[in-house]
């Protein structure tokens, strides 16, 4: 009987030792899998040039950091709405300055620690903290200027003020107030009226009413710029630097102008989304995007104008880009907090006082 008990005990002990051994192996294997498991980083971004962006930026980042990058693509307006509603899965988000300011005021972004993103120090001043020290840097800069048909416009356009000339009546295309370029029109009108927009918005809107007489259309579609000047429907337009080459390709007689008062800076910023579980990886991605090598390859492929001041381009490589210290320092920079706080009432006045004239 005792022998039987001892035998059973030995069997139980052996089974227990085997079970513990298997559990130990499983735990060790789980830890190994956890360490080698591919992480996912989700980026909310624009949809254009996705293939080149993935080749130049994403694929080498994925390889270096053993990470899978997923995109949430869409327009500024659609993506910021998704973020506000809590419907976005993004860890990192890129927006125009205006839409980034909306995100900041909604509390949608984590505060930035520049020590964890050392490439911020290599940026032009305009790009380091465009919306405040606590928030994301600019990763690209563009400009809002003028393009015109040099064959049809007899007197060259050199100034924002030229858009009010009588010979351009019904010959101009300008952005609607709700688009990225729209708020700049108020800044331009204020300058032409000789007033501070923060003190005298009435005179600004009076100046805009005058401008509307020369404007064939206020457009909310970026494609209108290229199509309408190519078809000869308009002779001048408010234009973005990143569209200038495509416009010239479609309308070879078109010419880009940086007005003597200065073009306006269009700044795209990158922020870390509030509550992300991948904050460290998000910081690494931002630092990667701001690096000299990535900024240069994006510039050469005409995706983004570089904000890293260490990027050196040949004259051919720089063509069509906002490039170099002198060019960037000449750009006019808007007060995006003021614009964000004012835009709702501006849109109401715009529809009543400016657009109504066109109907």
From TrEMBL:
Asked whether the keyword Kinase is assigned, the reply is: no
**Bilayer-crossing regions:** none
- Matching PANTHER family: ABC TRANSPORTER SUBSTRATE-BINDING PROTEIN, THIAMINE-BINDING PERIPLASMIC PROTEIN-RELATED
Might you name a Gene Ontology BP term for this protein? thiamine transport
Specify the protein name.
Spermidine/putrescine-binding periplasmic protein
Tell me which SUPFAM superfamilies the record gives: Periplasmic binding protein-like II
One CC-aspect GO term: outer membrane-bounded periplasmic space
Q: Does the keyword Chloroplast apply?
A: no
The organism's superkingdom is given as Bacteria
Which keywords does this Swiss-Prot/TrEMBL entry list? Signal
One of its Pfam families is SBP_bac_8
- Its source organism is Gottschalkia purinilytica
InterPro entries recorded = SBP (IPR006059)
Q: Which GO terms describe its molecular function?
A: thiamine binding; thiamine pyrophosphate binding
């Amino acid at each position: 009987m005792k022998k039987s008990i001892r035998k059973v005990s030995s069997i139980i002990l052996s089974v227990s030792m085997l079970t513990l051994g298997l559990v130990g192996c499983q735990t060790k294997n789980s830890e190994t899998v956890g360490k080698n498991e591919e992480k996912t980083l989700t980026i909310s971004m624009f949809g254009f040039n996705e293939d080149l962006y993935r080749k130049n930026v994403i694929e080498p980042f994925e390889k270096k950091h053993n990470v899978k990058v997923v995109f949430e693509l869409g327009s500024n307006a659609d993506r910021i709405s998704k973020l506000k509603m809590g419907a976005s899965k993004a860890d990192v988000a890129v927006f125009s300055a205006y839409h980034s300011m909306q995100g900041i005021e909604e509390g949608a972004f984590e505060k930035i620690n520049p020590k964890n993103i050392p490439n911020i120090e290599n940026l032009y001043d305009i790009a380091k903290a465009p919306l405040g020290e606590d928030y994301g840097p600019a990763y690209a800069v563009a400009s809002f200027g003028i393009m015109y048909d040099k064959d049809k416009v007899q007197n060259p356009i050199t100034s924002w003020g030229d858009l009010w000339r009588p010979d351009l009546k019904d010959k101009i295309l300008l952005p609607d107030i709700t688009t990225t370029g729209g708020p700049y029109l108020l800044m331009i009108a204020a300058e032409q009226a000789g007033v501070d927009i923060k003190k005298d918005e009435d005179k600004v809107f009076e100046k805009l009413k005058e401008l509307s007489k020369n404007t064939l259309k206020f457009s909310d579609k970026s494609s209108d710029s290229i199509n309408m000047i190519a078809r000869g429907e308009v002779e001048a337009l408010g234009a973005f630097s990143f569209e200038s080459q495509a416009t010239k390709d479609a309308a070879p007689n078109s010419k880009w102008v940086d007005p003597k008062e200065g073009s306006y800076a269009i700044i795209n910023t990158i922020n870390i989304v509030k509550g992300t579980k991948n904050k460290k990886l998000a910081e690494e991605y931002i630092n990667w995007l701001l690096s000299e090598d990535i900024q240069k390859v994006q510039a050469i492929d005409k995706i983004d104008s570089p904000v890293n001041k260490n990027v050196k381009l040949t004259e051919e490589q720089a063509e069509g880009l906002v490039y170099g210290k002198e060019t960037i320092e000449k750009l006019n920079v808007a007060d995006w907090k003021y614009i964000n706080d004012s835009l709702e009432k501006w849109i109401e006045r715009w529809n009543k006082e400016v657009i109504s004239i066109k109907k």
